[in-house]
Amino acid sequence: MGLRPRFQVDESKLNGLKEVSWKEVAKHNTKESCWVIIDDVAYDMTTYVDRHPGGSELLLTFAGREATHAFNAYHALSEQIARARLSEFAVAKVIDSEHAKYPKKSVVYDAMKDRLTEYFEKTKKDPKDWRYGFGHFMIMMAIAAFSLSLNWGVMPGSEDSWQLQLLGAILFGWIQALPLLHLMHDCSHGAFSHKPWAWDYFGKFTMDLYAGASMTAWHLQHVVGHHVWTNGFGADPDLPPAKQGDPRYLVKLQEHSSMYQYQHIYLPIAYSSLGLKVRISDLTHAWGPSPMAGPMRIRKHTAEWKAKWILIKTMWVMWRIVFPIVVLGMSLQWYFTLFIVSDMITGWYLAFNFQVSHISTLADYPFGAADRKQDVCEDEWAVSQIKTSVDYSHDSPMMTWMCGALNYQTVHHLFPGISQYHYPAIAPVLQEVAKEHGIKWNYLPSFASAFGEHVNYLKIMGQRGEAAEFHMG
Known about the structure:
The protein has 473 residues and is an alpha/beta fold. The chain is 51% helix and 6% strand. The protein is built from 18 helices and ten strands. Strands 1, 2, 3, 4, 5 and 6 form a six-stranded mixed beta sheet that branches. The longest helix is centred in the middle third of the chain and has 27 residues, at 162-188. Mean pLDDT is 93; it is low at 468-473.
């Protein structure tokens, strides 16, 4: 099956453009001066920020940055229209790059985009249908209300029962995580409806007000960093940020030490602190002296943004901490005991779901060894996404719901702008394309086996400093 015609950039419109470094582009990272890099060309999108169909926030997230692969992924089903608008904004050719680059070829990804376009045209389904996500969100909020009524001793029969209150804390720890995997995750990728205001409102409601974290910090780490340079040492914020000083030993370029031989034991325990880590990161992201969050540059925040940050953090503290202590009369010691229990459950639940999808014996690490190129990835971007991701339990609707469709991690990384509720249907379409191009799709039969390969990777890396070789069947 041949590829559909692609939009061809009019090179004549790029002739005569000045040449600049990515460092020059990095200076233009505000709403008043917003440049982005796409295919080695800098585009001044300042006058387009408020007219961007995907909203101003996602565009400003990439202000002053490399945006090629994010642009391709988020315009996967509207590429022709999006690229046709670009040329009028071109201001310079970019001669170097901040992070490692992927080859410009996109044969596999073009084929996948064509198949998905045909799928949605044939089925007449909306790739960003909001109804599924909203319906599940309402169910989760009902469960949250029930769990908190137990946790805070409001439910009849729970007033004097520490067992029921503890049960409520455990249940809330789970239901605090689940909306983040469903509604918030889709909102952060613009996959919940076609309305940017909905992404902003519901995303920040779940992430900022409900969970007490920060959608802006999540955008930087997850959307800008992790989704573009997945498993890329020195670029993916989810990997250790330096060769030494991290409790995790995940790639060969790090300096190995004897303590790592126990990482398969202490890391799964430490995953419970993810909630605390995220909240500390939010503080340093908003107020810290460092201009970096790992390998990612932090865009300078305006006074208005900081005022909103303070307001929403205050609202979270009021409902989550002050209300049960001051209004309901919970003792400080008992309240914070239950708070810690909930946060540990949330941390474990999120971390286990995140880690098995990329830190595994099946996954690739594009820039993780000295014998591999550090400035250019060997595979095109889409192929690298397939090789660095791990799927599991495609035959279990319950598992898909429990992990927010992260068991379709490869699909999500290839097409993050499509609602997760479509993943079970479109996965076979994409797997067929991968098969036609001879690309292995990493898959395991269950979450248990995926978790086992995660721990196995930690163990072998920690003991020998080498990645495990995994062989199916």
